[in-house]
Amino acid sequence: AQSVTQLGSHVSVSEGALVLLRCNYSSSVPPYLFWYVQYPNQGLQLLLKYTSAATLVKGINGFEAEFKKSETSFHLTKPSAHMSDAAEYFCAVTTGNTDKLIFGTGTRLQVFP
Amino acid sequence: NAGVTQTPKFQVLKTGQSMTLQCAQDMNHEYMSWYRQDPGMGLRLIHYSVGAGITDQGEVPNGYNVSRSTTEDFPLRLLSAAPSQTSVYFCASSYGRGYYGYTFGSGTRLTVV
Lengths: 113, 113
Known about the structure:
The complex is a heterodimer.
Chain A: E1 3-7, E2 10-14, E3 19-26, E4 31-38, E5 44-50, E6 56-58, E7 64-68, E8 73-78, E9 87-95, E10 102-103, E11 107-112
Parallel strand pairs in A: 2-11
Antiparallel strand pairs in A: 1-3, 3-8, 4-5, 4-9, 6-7, 7-8, 9-10, 9-11
Chain B: E1 4-7, E2 10-13, E3 19-25, E4 31-38, E5 42-51, E6 54-57, E7 64-66, E8 76-78, E9 87-94, E10 103-104, E11 108-112
């Protein structure tokens, strides 16, 4: 079965600082990996996805993530945080042989001025 | 193009009452899923469907029923509401398995008293 682990339920950064949100996955077959963002009182919005085409994936709002098979990781980064990035971020995994999309427990990002 | 529409947005139930959370999508997606979101637990899969007439259980199916009579609709039924079912419920749909990703509705906030 597939699973994801998000390290750190809360991350705080200053505006302009690097954002790094960690996600490690477990899968016995090649995974498809996703990052979703949830702004307060809203649904989830897809930030980016890894589908095996390229290991470095660029998403919306300046975010990117790198798939590292050797580390079973798919960390989300942004070079310079903006106040509007404050939200909850979810990593998710699925594979080609399952119908389920499984989520991590989420990381809440706070951005201080 | 409305995407995924959930109704109602808010609901308060008394313990033991039953109700149906509605979900409809207009993207001709085959895959639909229901998740519940609880603080610190991320999104957990309740039930999912890979097409009309086909449903299956997710991680936390107890206390919930689903059916899929049409491609567009995937209602979630609470048979006898319990306080433990107080949560935010999200419906999501996808074109298919794997790398397509899911589109989420805006959620239903349910309180059981």
